[in-house]
Design a protein that fits this description.
Elements lengths: L4 E3 L7 E3 L10 H15 L9 E6 L8 E5 L2 E5 L4 H6 L2 E5 L7 E5 L5 E6 L2 E6 L8 E5 L4 E5 L6 E5 L2 E5 L13 H4 L1 E6 L13 E6 L7 E6 L2 E6 L6 H6 L2 E5 L7 E5 L5 E6 L2 E6 L4 H6 L2 E5 L4 E5 L6 E5 L2 E5 L13 H4 L2 E4 L5
Parallel strand pairs: 1-2
Antiparallel strand pairs: 3-6, 3-14, 4-5, 6-7, 8-9, 10-11, 11-14, 12-13, 15-18, 15-26, 16-17, 18-19, 20-21, 22-23, 24-25
Length: about 350
């Protein structure tokens, strides 16, 4: 989102507050933190550990290509299929050999990391830690990834393959021509945005994982999302209200939308940060509001808003919101945040 004025106006929704001055949508501290992170990433000096990312080529004429693995070797391709996007997505981890650097774990092959061997970059299980550790350096408008144990050598794309290269070295991929551009990567939002899997087109119920409240489930009532205790003895309406069919994300097919089991065509969406059930609308705003990316949580999955960045579906005093950790609202309270945004994906109460 882009915020350019204090309040929304008649035909613009880019204010910090809503038109009626009642809802603070974004705090100054969050805007500052996001801008500082953007600047650091642009300089190539900051990549967050445990982020889900893709590495895009920055060389002119090839900026639609991403680093991906295929047959255990790294190369660059233009992602077209779901498999291409998954192969092009990695978790950034604290460096296996040095936590101040980075290692890149495959999104679709957990436990396999990018590593160098005989100058080629590939993925492998249980790699030599130093071979799988790369340090973020300031590149030419992005991030250069220097080998931890072969200093002065960087991850470089060359003729669609990916190598560990040293400018002016003896190999063809060491050529100094466009070396800076070829070793600079735009570490971006992942082309496959969900870091956890949900079963498509199947009904599921979502159980609270916060200690003391694990008998409560996400449900809708009177058009609003909330949590209630559900048991085998609960009535059929409560069980149906607590069941959702998992669909491909209306706004992003690598994320998810939750369709009501008993009101087909109605989806959970957020509006003014409150999660509610609305009938489907043919608008980009509705599709974005109703799309959530599944990420690993604490004992479950987080459901991350695709358009309110930094927020997740959270239960708070029985109500359900999209909330940030430590934001301006009462439901952004950092106490038990990680547990409150983690949901156990359970068998459906109403199959």
């Amino acid at each position: 989102s882009l915020y350019t004025e204090p309040y929304d106006v008649e035909n613009e929704v880019n204010g910090f507050y809503t038109y009626d001055r009642r809802v603070l949508k974004m705090t100054e501290s969050r805007v500052r933190a996001v801008n500082q992170k953007v600047l650091a990433i642009a300089n190539g000096t900051a990549v967050g550990p445990d982020d889900l990312v893709s590495l895009r080529v920055t060389t002119s004429g090839y900026t639609d290509r991403y680093l991906r693995h295929r047959d255990s070797l790294a190369r660059t391709d233009v992602p077209g299929s779901d498999l291409d996007r998954l192969d092009s997505t990695f978790f950034t981890r604290p460096g296996l050999a040095d936590a101040s650097c980075l290692s890149f774990e495959s999104r679709n092959f957990p436990g396999l990391f990018l590593r160098h061997a005989n100058s080629r970059i590939g993925i492998a299980a249980n790699p030599v830690a130093a071979d799988a550790t790369f340090c973020a350096r300031e590149g030419s408008g992005g991030t250069a990834l220097e080998s931890y144990n072969v200093r002065g050598s960087f991850i470089r794309h060359f003729d669609a393959n990916v190598y560990l290269a040293r400018s002016g070295g003896p190999n063809p991929w060491d050529t100094p021509n466009s070396f800076a551009a070829d070793t600079t990567w735009a570490i971006s939002v992942a082309v496959w945005r969900s870091g956890a899997e949900l079963p498509l087109d199947q009904a599921r119920s979502f159980r609270v994982t916060t200690p003391g409240f694990t008998d409560r489930y996400l449900r809708h009532r009177d058009g609003l999302a909330r949590t209630d205790v559900v048991t085998s003895g609960s009535d059929g309406l409560l069980k149906a209200d607590s069941t959702f069919v998992i669909r491909r994300g209306l706004a992003d097919p690598t994320c998810y939308s939750l369709e009501s089991r008993n009101f087909p065509g109605s989806y959970l969406r957020h509006a003014d940060f409150r999660v509610r059930l609305n009938a489907g609308e043919n608008s980009d705003l509705f599709r974005r509001d109703a799309t959530f990316c599944a990420q690993p949580g604490e004992g479950g999955v987080r459901l991350e808003s695709v358009n309110e960045l930094g927020t997740n579906i959270r239960h708070y005093q029985e109500e359900v919101w999209v909330a940030s950790n430590g934001g301006a609202h009462t439901y952004d309270n950092p106490a038990s945040y990680n547990q409150d945004v983690s949901w156990a994906v359970s068998s459906p109460w109403a199959p």
